[in-house]
Amino acid sequence: MAELKNMLYMWITVLQLWFELSLCLSEWPQTGQAQYENPPEVVIPLKVAGTGRETKTRGWLSYSLYFGGQRHIVHMKAKKLLISRRFSVFTYTDKGDLLEDWPYIQNDCYYQGYVEGNERSMVAINTCFGGFQGTIQVNDIQYEIKPKIPSNSFEHVVYKTNTEEENSHPLRCALTEEEIENQLKFQQNDNFMRQSGYEGWWTHRAFLELILIVDNQRYNYRHRNLTHVLQDVFFVLNEIGKIFAAIDLEINLIAVEVWTTQNFVSGTNTGHLLDKFCDWKEGRLDRRIRSDAAHLLINQNFGMFLGKAYVGGVCMPYSCGVERLLGENLVAASNTVAHEMSHGLGMAHDGRYCSCGQRDCIMAPAQNPSVKFSNCSYASLVQTYRQKHCLRLPADSSRLYKFQLCGNGVIDDGEECDCGSKKMCETDPCCLANCTLTAGSECASGLCCKDCHFLPSGTLCREQENHCDLPEWCNGTWPDCPDDVFMIDGSPCLDTGYCYENRCNDRDKQCQKIFGEKARNANETCYRHINTKGDRSGNCGVYTNRYVSCRISDILCGRVQCDNVLNIPVLEEHYSIHWDRINDFNCWGTDFHWGMSAPDLGEIKDGTECGEGHMCLKRKCVPKPTWESECSPTYCNLQGICNNKHHCHCNYGWSPPFCELQGYGAMAFTLKSWLLLPFLRLPDLFLRVEGICAASDNTPSFSQQIVLILLVGFLGSEG
């Protein structure tokens, strides 16, 4: 009997282990047992040295893969701008309370690139969870790649995502042509844009801040595992980032909200659900965080319809969309999200005369695997870019959040500290969840705070970054480093440069930044010949959409001209390099399209020397300004330098505000120092020491003495 009990116990244990293992495996990517639309191929990616010129630059990776009957060299580079620096995840407690968390997100494992020898190719792969997972578009065919499980030799499976079979009832976007026409009736596209030669149009970089919301059914489908939900979201994000990169649109994910307890909207069809979601977005979401667009990913089946969005709604209260996210086909879901987001950017469905070089394009009404935009889509996009100024602004976390709140990780007015979510506060030794300091703590954060206490006076908290920057030291009574200041504009730097807005502007350095360390400033002949042209290669700025040729007196303030260029650099898109040979002088430079949002590498920076006692200012060569200021080396007792606030920035070992007493350097920045400053500037001040006012026989008035005594008392009580 005992033996029977032991056998029964053993079988129960085995069944329990088998059940737990089944649950565990059910959450793995089912690559080894997945059902594919097309037969998969097994490949082993082999890392190779980059063969293309641009892949030799830092950050590019190259792999060789054999699929589709031939070997492909894939070049890819990490795309680090996909996720906002202040990325938030919103969830809900069982009681319905909103939680906001700021989890660590690995942001260097999402890659985008291309296939060597195929200029129309696209690659979007992530390596965050071991192996390659993503898509490769080559020869107008889209492949999906996933790790093969199990495998001990880095095996992957690659298969086509598109099929030649026609579906009698294809899945499609829920927007009807009548709805699109009504929504676009106030938008007019330029007819000249509708032409067959659509590729290579000059688009300008734009930025879209996106929020994705995941419904409760999808959360339950992922076994209520938030990590797996976020994995799906980031896969979709990388895919749509690849698609929109073709039109120079940066997608920046600023937040994800997961409805962990219930759905906050519901609908009987996609149109009804879209209306409800937009109302929820405007009434609830927009009140706590701004975005250019918000989209809801739903684990619901609405028959033949995949999703819906308002046309041209980007940056408006109705900039919203809903998309179906069923099962494991994240690639198809990504295409749907890209399609609906494109509606928000003003794109209608492609018509008879719309073309992208493939049978179907992204904006075809029915589902298809295309990642190409048509000429009609480009025309709509150009019109949207002209009208939507919000798309011109890079992501900025400081303008996203509207309300102050204890628990948001930011020290707002009235808070001593803010450790973030309750979970994060549990491990914070300095800050409590109610945004107050723990007993005995002086601080919880800041460059001058360590182990809940202020760092000693004189501790370096911000190093000098360049020739015009100034270091800062802790003062021993405050957790934050003093304001970041720099040398006053016009201060000499290097051999011939002047400081201007914390830059030492030197022509040789500017040439080296573009063309390498051996490059040097070119002869003035180059400046005279090129900057008087008044075109993209040589000008003194733009006025009323036209390039302005430089006057002879301003030629050194147009575009930089360089010599001794040994290597041609790899620059970003829209930049071009030009070379001229003028009177035996080599003249190297860059041109620049004035409509771009990227910085102009070739423009002469303000503050650059253009003759003895002269500097460039707004493309003009002007006498070096003499800024009105009481600050001077003598004013700082020759123990400090004047900074951009026209205050003494004392050397280490000397104390502000006049660098006359021993201390720990830098600049006085507390209120009590500025209260004292007007009185310390009196020429007859009797407290100045060691001959600063020795020549003066005057003594301060009685009222001045009284004020000084009160101030000294105030300082003593504060210190």
Automatic annotation (TrEMBL):
Gene Ontology MF: a single term: metal ion binding
Leader sequence residues: 1-26
A GO cellular-component term linked to this record: sperm head plasma membrane
Gene3D superfamilies linked: Collagenase (Catalytic Domain), Disintegrin domain
Domain named Peptidase M12B: residues: 206-381
Residue positions binding Zn(2+): H339, H343, H349
Annotated catalytic residues: E340
Localisation per UniProt entry: Membrane
Domain of life of the source: Eukaryota
Keyword DNA damage: no
Alphabetical keyword list: Disulfide bond, EGF-like domain, Membrane, Metal-binding, Signal, Transmembrane, Transmembrane helix, Zinc
Membrane topology summary: Single-pass type I membrane protein
Residue ranges of domain EGF-like in the record: 627-660
Disulfide bonds: C356-C361, C461-C481, C650-C659
SMART domains: ACR, DISIN
Keyword Transcription on entry: no
SUPFAM superfamilies: Blood coagulation inhibitor (disintegrin), Metalloproteases ('zincins'), catalytic domain
Record domain Disintegrin: where: 403-489
Gene Ontology biological-process entries: male gonad development; proteolysis
CDD domains reported for this sequence: ZnMc_adamalysin_II_like
Pfam families xref list: ADAM_CR, Disintegrin, Pep_M12B_propep, Reprolysin
Name of this protein: Disintegrin and metalloproteinase domain-containing protein 25-like
Source organism (scientific name): Dipodomys ordii
